Structures are given as C-alpha cells and as structure tokens.
C-alpha cells in the first residue's frame, strides 16, 4: 500500500492550523510540523490524535518520581 506525502510551507500560524485541520478531514493522521519556535496551538492540534510517545511517557514518569520539582508535560518534541 502506497503512502501519500504532503509538504507545505506556511508563513503564519493560522494558515498552518487551517492546513492541519483540512488534512485531518481528508484522513491524514501522521503529521509532522517543524517550526522555528514552539507554537502551542500547533502542538495541541497535532497531539489530539497522536498517542504520547512511549519514551516521553517513561521519562516523564521516571523524572516525576525522582525529581523534587514538578516538571512541565512532555511536548510534541519528545
């Protein structure tokens, strides 16, 4: 079975989010987005359907049990 690849370059967050949502409606589920800085809205949209990484879950659970200070939740970069 062949897999489709779509590449897009966007200058603004709102057009990127629109493209992500349009791709989701067309059935695309495996999306990777690269941005020069973290964008919370994009991370939230991407993580809606992607299960958390096993490595991410392990490191968050492990560090939470050994670290004295609370840690931020794992981001899409994990």
Describe this structure in words.
The protein is mainly alpha-helical and 78 residues long. The protein is built from 3 helices and no strands. The protein has helices at 13-25, 40-47, 54-66. Helix 1 (13-25) packs parallel to helix 2 (40-47). The two termini are 28 Å apart.
What would a concise description of this structure say?
By secondary structure, this protein is mostly helical. Helix content is 44%, strand content 0%.
Strand and helix layout:
Layout: H1 13-25, H2 40-47, H3 54-66
The low-confidence parts are none
Assembly level: single chain
Rg from Cα: 15 Å
| Main beta sheet strand tally, sense and closure | none
- Report the order of strands and helices: HHH
Record field, number of beta strands: 0
Determine the fraction of residues in helical runs and give it as a percent range: 40-55%
Q: Which structural class do you get from the secondary structure elements? A: mainly alpha
Overall shape: globular
First-last Cα distance: 28 Å
Percent range for β-strand residues: under 5%
| Number of helical elements | 3
Global mean pLDDT: 74
